Amino acid sequence: MTAARSIFGLPRFLRSLAEYQAAYASGDVFPLGLSELFPVLADFRADAGQAGGHYFFQDLWAARKIYERRPHRHVDVGSRIDGFVSHLLVFMPVTVLDIRPLSSGVRGLEFVREDATALRAFENESLDSISSLHAVEHFGLGRYGDRIDVRGWQKVLASFQRVLKGGGRLYVSVPIGRERVCFNAHRVFAPTRLIEALGELRLVSFAAVEDSGAFLDNVSPDDMAKQEFACGLYEFTR
Asked: pTM, whole model, 2 decimals?
């Protein structure tokens, strides 16, 4: 489809180039050379951007909640650095954990390379604010260089539960709907699965991005049981 749209846009590109060449004056501050042509053939039909989807809504949802609380310290496990974590770095430092390496000199970003199924760097009930967005579903599938572990998702949730202090907040998002593993990409969880796995914690709020793409705030996990590949957004406390 992308290739077809690009071919369809070629005549428009050639007309635009001819129009630009006709108006171009020799010695213009921006030299125009045929070797510098960079055809972008489909953007004129695209939207201005994407204000939707799992990542857009989950990043906004969690960042707003953390901004309201303004914890002294926040720890993130596996969320997108160039999305959610960068949102947080605008107003607070963030410690990021991942099994993969990260090279960064960004102010306020501390990186710890560790397997989050253990979280050995943290004592019991020591963290006030933790997030893991669209990451738990990958643990134990080997996709990101981790070892194969059928119970990897349970172990990382148990680690979150262990290190969360009383009154703290845990923000987790995962795919929800018809429960299954799509090896080795991800798992899809029944909407109540995380609530059952984090039995020592209390669910503070739940939101979702349903199959249609609509964001639903403060809904019941049970309402999402018939989804195929939605996104569940969970806020827990101890």
From this structure: 0.91
